[in-house]
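Q: Focus on the chain.
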Amino acid sequence: MRQLVPLGTNVENEYDVQDPYSLRCIPQVHGPSLEGILSSKEALEVEMNSGSDNPLVFTDREPMIVSGGNFHGEYPAKQLDILAIYTHEIGSISFMRAKRTMNPNKSLGLPAFLTRNGGKCSGLMTWENVAASLVSENKVLCHPSSVDSAETCADKEDHVSMGGFAARKAITVAENVTKIIAVELMTACHALQHRFLEARETGKEF
């Protein structure tokens, strides 16, 4: 954060003692999320390189066939559920920052929805709605799949990991988060454009 953000401030607000959590707590949210994502990646790589066939056939000494349950996939299913949750956090806090730039009561002088021509021109209002819908969808998708099970095969397969569903959900959450971040980047670019215009028109240092 210190390398990305130069010393000094862009806009000072003497009436607001503390920044909102979506700004002040970026390291505290992004840090655990990144660690969780990397931890899930490591765990999934271990599982992908593990023996999960059924039966397992050993031929290094005397041939031996072992029927086990390494195929169950509980570990990957749990990790994929966790991966979705941590990934969602990145999108959730990103959305809150994007919202602030479009709210004239929170953006320290920026126009509503980052447009100077309100009325017929709604600015980035629709993009805020897009990001909101994606965050809401991710909240539903973050319900863990691995807490569910469905009994089949005359109850021979009576407890399953639902790992396939967990994987599909994790992919969808990640794709949604990339779109949410794109909305934040777009609002940030528009906000900077307005700041530059304001500085040029008023002669105030940016």
Summary: DSSP finds five helices and two strands in the chain. The chain has one domain: 21-202.
